Every structure is written in C-alpha cells, then in structure tokens.
UniProtKB/TrEMBL annotation:
CDD domains listed in its UniProt record: MnmA_TRMU-like (cd01998)
SUPFAM superfamilies (alphabetical): Adenine nucleotide alpha hydrolases-like
Organism of this sequence: Nocardioides baekrokdamisoli
Family assignment from sequence similarity: Belongs to the MnmA/TRMU family.
Annotated protein name in UniProt: tRNA-specific 2-thiouridylase MnmA
One Gene Ontology molecular-function label: tRNA binding
Site residues (Interaction with tRNA), renumbered to this chain: H120, Q337
Pfam families: tRNA_Me_trans, tRNA_Me_trans_C, tRNA_Me_trans_M
Location, primary (coarse class): cytoplasm
Enzyme class, spelled out: transferase
Catalytic activity, as annotated: S-sulfanyl-L-cysteinyl-[protein] + uridine(34) in tRNA + AH2 + ATP = 2-thiouridine(34) in tRNA + L-cysteinyl-[protein] + A + AMP + diphosphate + H(+)
Any one of the GO CC terms: cytoplasm
Region (Interaction with tRNA): 141-143
C-alpha cells in the first residue's frame, strides 16, 4: 500500500474477494525527506500515514517493511551507475523486478502468504502455458510495460485487482468506500528525486564518480555549438535545456543524438536523425516460455507507442540476447531503456536495450 488511491482500492477488493489481506507499506528511505517531499512520489511520511488510514478504513492489519537498504542498492545505485555509463535506465522497472516482486514477494511467501496484490493496471489470465500478463482494459492507464520484468513464477503469486477498471471509476469507488485518498493526485517522476530535477540530483550524488564534469555540444560534423557541465544532464532524444547559442541553419530544433561519457561530447541534430529501425537487447526476462521468433510488437517507454516488430531470440545460453527489427521506426531510444515485447495484448517478456541502429539518411 503506497498511500495512493490505486493500492487502497486494490486492497479493499482483495478483501471482498475473500482473501485474508495484510497491508504493507514499503519504507524505501531511512530519511524520507531526502528522497521526496509532498504528494508526488511513494517515499514520504505522508504516504505512509495515508496508507495506514486506508488500512484502518478497510479493516486490515498494517505494517511498514523497511527495505531502504535494498532499494538503495538495487534501484538508486543502479540508476546512478547507468547514467554514469551514458545509459538511460527506468528505475520503476527495476523497482518492480528487484523490490516489489522479488524482495517483497520472497518475504511474503516465507511468511506464509500466497501472493502480493498491487494497484498496478494490468490483467492476469490463465493461458495454455500458465499465467499470462495482459494490458489493462483502460489503455490510458495500462502499466503492463513496467511489469514486463516479471517471470512466470512471480506472476503465479501476483494479483492486480484493478486491471479491468478505468481510473475514474476507481476514484469513485474509493470515495464510496470512505477512503480519504480518493482524490489524491497520482505520483509522477522518479520517486527518489526530491524536486524532479534528475540532472541536478545525479550531479550531486555522483560527485567525483561523474564520467565527466563538462564537455562540448557538437553537430554531426563535429562543429562545437556550445558546452555543458556534465553528460549526466542529457539523454538521447532530449530537446529542451540544450542551451545552444547557435541556431540550426534551417531554423529547426535540435535533439540529442549521441552521448559520449568518456570525452564528454554530446552530439545534436534534427529529429529525423533519431529514427531507428533495429534494437539489440540483452538480459531478457520472459513471462513464460521464451520464443524463438515472434511477429509481435514492442513498447520502448512507459507511456510510449507500440511498434510492430519481428523479434528473434538468440539460442546462446552464455549471453542470451534479443534482436528486434522494427516495422515502424522509433525515435529517441537510448541504451539502458527497456523493450517490452507483446503478442497482441499479452506481455511475452522484456530486454534491456544495448544498442540501436539508425535509419540510413
């Protein structure tokens, strides 16, 4: 129970379904104010109090589990390491993989519970090969992308009670149940970045570990257009905040095309030069049996478009990999992001993007 409306209603529905429910709030920082203040994330004292009040209304036991050390090592440090290496990670996927459906689920099973229920918007179905993870009925709130790291063993012990309900109806239900979080705003941004300034947070936390403390912003021919104070402040596809004093010859906006963390060079150019048609992925995770080839689709951002693709899985056992040929080009895709693979509405699995291939200009 994060302290938001979704997990509160999910807990209430689990009780109505006949389950013996215990509410758990995760303490992810020993000093919550150092990660997030206000109602924008899931790491605050206010959120813990909101979750406790919701549990009282529902009538279930409530506990706070301190997973701050594990969260720091598996999510926060990983986030810093990936940016320091010039990649763009998604900490929400890592949190689901390492915390909510690994550390929490493992502890729950050891304590005799059968499953972990959350307020994620996704649907579980029984399939011919086990439990299948599908997109939520409300496409605008679908969160199957951030659950694309779950394995079959984890899905067997998961419940997503909200997957068939549009978000406005969830809020109405919360109000009917007397839950004070009915109108609480949704959380946004990265929960452990206190003010939403990812670049500033990274520079402060990395300190001397930054790959560089400055460098050049250049065009594709290598002409310097400006300077910067650290590549951790950039990501592939970024348009705003480049602070380039020299306008493009055609007057069109420039986008970050490439980041070289060792030299500190950031290359910029027109949007069409961000177009990619192939992705190589590593560290695949499968929701069921791994396919050999699949004509399906991939989603490359939490709220991104779905791209038709042909997916080919390596048969190597030492370094399993995934090759994705896109039928619809994608823009601004960076190494470190996740490619979640779908067959219709069903999540097949996911892979971490290692490299991309630009469309020939």
């Amino acid at each position: 129970m994060s302290g938001g409306v979704d997990s509160a209603v999910a807990a209430a529905r689990a009780v109505e379904a006949g389950h013996d429910v215990t509410g758990i709030h995760l303490a992810l920082s020993r000093n919550p104010a150092s990660y997030r203040s206000g109602a924008r994330g899931c790491c605050t004292i206010e959120d813990s109090n909101d979750a406790r009040r919701a549990a009282d209304v529902i009538g279930i036991p409530f506990y706070v589990w301190d997973l701050s050390d594990r969260f720091h090592e598996d999510v926060v440090v990983d986030f810093m390491d990936e940016y320091a290496a010039g990649r763009t990670p998604n900490p929400c996927l890592r949190c689901n993989e390492k915390i909510k459906f690994a550390a929490v689920l493992d502890r729950a099973l050891n304590l005799g519970f059968d499953a972990v229920a959350t307020g994620h918007y996704a649907v579980l179905k029984d399939g011919p090969d086990g439990v299948e993870l599908h997109r939520a009925n409300d496409q605008a709130k679908d969160q199957s992308y951030v659950l694309g790291v779950l394995t079959q063993d984890q899905l067997k012990h998961s419940l997503f009670p909200l997957g068939d309900t549009p978000k406005p109806l969830v809020r109405e239900e919360a109000a009917r149940r007397g839950l004070l979080v009915a109108d609480k705003p949704d959380s946004h941004d990265i929960c452990f970045v206190a003010d939403g300034d990812n670049a500033g947070w990274l520079k402060e936390k990395l300190g001397e570990r930054q790959p560089n403390t400055g460098g050049s912003i250049v065009d594709e021919s290598g002409v310097e257009l400006g300077t910067h104070t650290g590549t951790v402040g950039f990501t592939i596809g970024q348009r705003k905040g480049l602070r380039i004093g020299v306008p493009a010859a055609d007057g069109r906006p420039r986008f970050v095309l490439d980041i070289e963390p060792v030299s500190g060079t950031v290359t910029v150019g027109p949007k069409e030069h961000l177009a990619i048609d192939h992705i190589s992925g590593i560290r695949p995770l499968w929701a069921g049996s791994a396919p050999t080839t699949l004509d399906g689709s991939v989603q490359l951002r939490a709220h991104g478009d779905e791209h038709r693709a042909r997916i080919t899985v390596s048969s190597s056992t030492n370094e399993p990999s995934v090759e994705i040929d896109l039928h619809d080009v994608a823009y601004g895709i960076a190494p470190g992001q996740a490619a979640v693979i779908y067959d219709g509405t069903r999540v097949v699995g996911s892979a971490t993007i290692a490299s991309t291939r630009r469309v020939s200009q």
